[in-house]
TrEMBL record:
It comes from Wolfiporia cocos (strain MD-104) (Brown rot fungus). It comes from the Eukaryota. Residues 736-748 have a biased composition (Gly residues). The keyword Signal applies. The keyword Lipid biosynthesis does not apply. This is DUF1793-domain-containing protein. Residues 106-337 form the Glutaminase A N-terminal domain. Pfam families: DUF5127, GtaA_6_Hairpin. Residues 346-718 form the Glutaminase A central domain.
Amino acid sequence: MQGLSALLLLAAAIPTSNAAVTWTATPFNPAAVPLAVRSPYLSAWLPQGSGAALNAGWPNFWTGTILGWAGFINVDGTSYNFLGVPSVPSTTFTKAVQTDLTITSTQSTFSMTAGPVDLTVQFLSPIEPGDLVNLSLPFSYVALTAVPNDGKSHSVQLYTDISGEWLSADDSMTINWTTTTTGNVITHISQLENQTLFGDINNRMQQGASYYSVLNTPGTTYQVGQDIVVRAQFINHSTLTNTSDTNFRGISDDWPVFAFAHDLGNISSLSEPVVISIGFARDPAVEYITAGGAVQHRSSYFWSRYATIDDAIATFLGDYSNAVMRAKAFDTKVLTDSSQSSMPINYHSIVLLSIRQAFGGIEITISKDSNGSYNTSDVTAFLKEISSSGYISTVDNIFSAWPLFLYTNPLIGKALLLPLLEYQAAGLYSNKWACHDLGPQYPKATGYPNGNDTDMPVEESGNMLIMTLSYTQWSNDTSLIHSYYNLLNQWAQYLQANTLAPSLQLDSDAIAGPLANQTNLAIKGIIGIKAMSEMSFTNGDNTAGSSYNTTAYQYVEKWQSLAMAPGGLHLTLAYGNDSSWGLTYNMYADKLLNTNIIPESVYNLQTSWYKEKSGDLQWGIPLDTRHSYTFTGLLRSRRTLQLEANRHTAGWEIWTAATVTDTSLQTAMVNMVNTYASGQQNNEPFGDWYDTTDGDTECSSSVCFKARPVVGAHLALLTLSPSNISTGPSSNTSGPGSGGNNGSGGGNSTTPASKSSSASPIQAARWLLGFTAATCFAALSSA
């Protein structure tokens, strides 16, 4: 089509920078650059959509509040600012000039020029899916290297500091601090004076401490004090005083900062990196309700290896060179997979920008035994619904991010499913369908004893069944099916009675409000029933397997007749509303599971319709044809958001692209998301809900769809690539806690819908990170 061809040409011509940008960027300049992104509470970004350099604005927390982080380099007595926008009276300094920005899955690297010296500032947030200790460490690196650019020798000193803004968005809060010199590490520790266990206010944790650390090498000095005093000390003297202000006070009361300086001496070649770690840690991390209603305090997994936080920091800093090598291997694997010939052009750019953000929304935890030792066989993970509500372990958010976990390590997906399965199998949830989340405020997973969570019965039941089967297929681990078969069967029975013609209810796009007879929601439930058929066979319940299989195929046939618009041109948004239509992204689950219950003719039909509707659209195909959506009190604390037509969800665009049968359309759809990601229309961390008319992230005074872990959805195409798919379960291997006491036993008499490939992504992850199969599974296995 003429419009589609024009769009492909436009996407191919997208520049890597706009007129305001004077540096090169690879793959492009995003709206916000991830700096230190490791957890819901360590999430630092550079807002630079309008073309701001590293030293043209302050880093922000994902909410948009400032995180004071300043950096200077002194060269032969001349001071240059390279990080943040500090004002230091009675001093003289100039701005370093940014020349390059390179972003990978794990790193954001800035190249700067400070007169006769070039400075590289590398922000590394490690992602190591095969090592749960390293993956759960809430620390990031920043590494600084300098090299003369004129062939001469120069005296160079480096400086960085952070402020108390890393602890709270409320600048009036009183903080205290200490500086430790344990072993060969210097650490600035700062915390709120008054702490609240599991307290989350305005998305900032009221418990725990910030840790800013360096190796105590010759030439390293430190200082704690008022910002303008400490910074002036370095600018004027190129060193710090090794002293600490003892006047604990409010964050904005003479702005205490925690600083380090490093004298590199006279350098004539590339310096060794100055490595700094930044982190925010707390213990315990999550409150979780267990069988019988007892509340359990769970710790971050990394505590299973380290006796103290000092041990963790010392190991983290000492491991930097190895961490860089592992990060480069991970980055290379992701780039190779997302750039292969079968992938749309520019797809790799979306994937690279999504991975840190998605992993930054989860935390991996373990429990303690009665003797106080950590139980590494009891591994659970929790996801925060960042920006849109603050719920803990929202099922449809996990479902959205699911492709990321399948691709990187399915056992992380299992750890996310386990607390949901355990909670409901224990009888702590009164409804017959799957719950929406584990609690209204992260990190309190205390559930809903009255079953009064947000009602998404078909949505979440279908999600849980689809995720459980896909985990089994990708991991060859049937323990979830065996352990929770009765619960899974309960949800399938609910779907059997309710999914063909869903009542007035919400789906994952809850902001659009409830709608009856949703075509896209109905097919999710039908695929869920088919998934239960496969799981029943796996559990030895062949009668149920055959019955569910028959139901699924009968329902698909009826669904087509109910959802088809007159003339057979497209599927409707809702039965009977013939002029309506939308992205039927849930059909991706049929591809993912290889269940093949949707006829190819339906995929072809929708492909043709999307091609017609794509026209000359630049930012994406609208999610559906509804107008003036209202965000009502039915969801998310009675927040209200008025939406116009043409709203769009990036993850669902990618999922829909994964289902189309025309490669040119798939490429066009991916490029529309890439246009948004690189379009610099805002300064927000990768938003997943935006306006297709102007590419702007959707926000109101109370909610903004940004920085959410749901961008893991963007890896959907990687889960359909033959090189990344395994062949289905062949043995009953246990992963994290195969708990549950409601399984009906039975053998693996029938393999679930299988995939035709020789290598699984979990095998790839083990190879990539240097772990044997036994080591990787042992980290997440139960006795």
